Amino acid sequence: MKTTTLTAVAAVVIVAAGSGYWVGKKQSHQPIAASQPSERNVLYWYDPMMPGQRFDKPGKSPFMDMDLVPRYADEEKAAAGVGISSQQQQNLGMKTAKAEMRQLVTPFTAFASVSTDERSVSVVSAPANGVVSKLFVKAPQQQVKKGEPLAQLWIPQWTTAQQEYLAVRQIGDAGLTRAARERLALQFMPEEVIRMLERSGKPQTTLTLRAAQAGYVVKLDVREGAQITATAPLFEIATLDPVWLVIDYPQSQAQSLVVGSKMVATTESWPGEQFHGTVSELLPQMETTTRTLKARIVLENTAQKLKPGMYLTVSRSKEPTRQSVLAVPEEAVINTGESSRLLLATGDGYFRPVNVETGLTAQGWTEIRSGLNAGDNVVTSGQFLIDSEASLRSVMPEVTP
Question: Which CATH number fits the domain 124-235, given the four candidates 2.40.50.100, 1.10.3720.10, 3.90.180.10, 1.20.120.160?
């Protein structure tokens, strides 16, 4: 009985050993490649502490005492952006907006004082040596009307020339008469004096100076009884329509004004009224003490309500037509000092930073000149956290020098 039991155990051991041999032999004939994972394709190597710098071969980091880390091709999707779940987006308070075409107008406001339009200033001078026999305007700043008398002059030196002209007329020679009349004109004798001479037949030695335009006397350089010389300035007369405004504005708003820009001015002296004008010149000199630019505005003053020295608030009138530009909300732009970028929502919860070229900023929107297309979704809230994460993952766009 005991011998039979030992025989059975030996038979089981032999069978088990044989089975193991055949299983091992079968497995040994399987291809080795099928049991090993496929080799991963490396795109580049980088230093996790300096993710923006890429290397084309492995080695030590030149920045830190550590090995470079490979970036594999199967990680390309993750490297193309930062993936954030909808729950995380809600927790971060993320918001997006579409880039769209808009008309941007930079707001412009400045303060200025009214001054005389120097182009309208006219000078009344003496036509010849003489004496001021009478003044009709005796004080500066006095208002005058067109044609109103200013002063009466006595000019005795005209007597001889006028007597010669009268003598030549009696001869009846047309050529001599014409030549004698031209000599009178060459002595700056007004046409009205010559005609009065011809009508009366007597020398005219008094002349009344009159205002050539309506306005006010800016300067009065003569008094009654004073002797005057030829071409001596006696009066300066300026008009109040139009007037000048010279405004100061910061150089950061240099692009806000151009010659021909329409402007609107208001003043507390006339509440509710607007005065319209046009930028006539952008003055070339910058004010060095205040670092501001200057512009000259010609302002309409038909009712002459604006006086030199009055303070006005000047703004640019709304322009009905202006070229539309691609723009995004101002808060969407991340300025790094070296470049400007946006976080673009690429879909499926991924966000990718893109470098852009910005332009005008106005009314809460910033012009995008390149790097973005109309209709693209950009992040307007929570973008700084995503931007930091993108920097750590080395998915920042390369800055073009």
Answer: 2.40.50.100
